[in-house]
Design goal:
Blueprint (H helix, E strand, L loop, with lengths): L5 H4 L7 E10 L4 E9 L2 E6 L5 H8 L9 H6 L7 E6 L3
Antiparallel strand pairs: 1-2, 1-4, 2-3
Organism: Novosphingobium mangrovi
Protein name: DUF2958 domain-containing protein
Length: about 90
């Protein structure tokens, strides 16, 4: 995957996003926080080790009704499956 930067984020217009879901993967010694963005019948997948992850999060925070508590909701308890929908336009 390319680095997440302003040019990349231009490909992810907020008004076309249908759903943003955060989840974590158990990586044996730590959890990896991941994010899926659904738009135009396409799913984009990211994780916290992607270069520019912080830029992506700041971009997503501009969605109306975006859950500001997504991190605490998805990160606890450690090493347990957890999924949080932070934004959805779906009914």
């Amino acid at each position: 995957m390319a680095n997440i930067d302003a040019n990349f984020l231009a490909q992810l217009p907020l008004d076309e996003m249908a759903r943003v879901t955060f989840y974590k993967r158990d990586e044996i010694t730590n959890d990896l926080i991941c994010c899926e963005v659904v738009m135009n019948s396409q799913t984009w997948s990211f994780h916290e080790e992607n270069v520019g992850w912080g830029l992506l999060i700041k971009h997503l925070e501009n969605l109306p009704g975006f859950r500001s508590d997504w991190f605490s909701a998805v990160s606890q308890p450690p090493f347990a499956a957890s999924e949080t929908v932070a934004f959805s336009r779906e009914g």
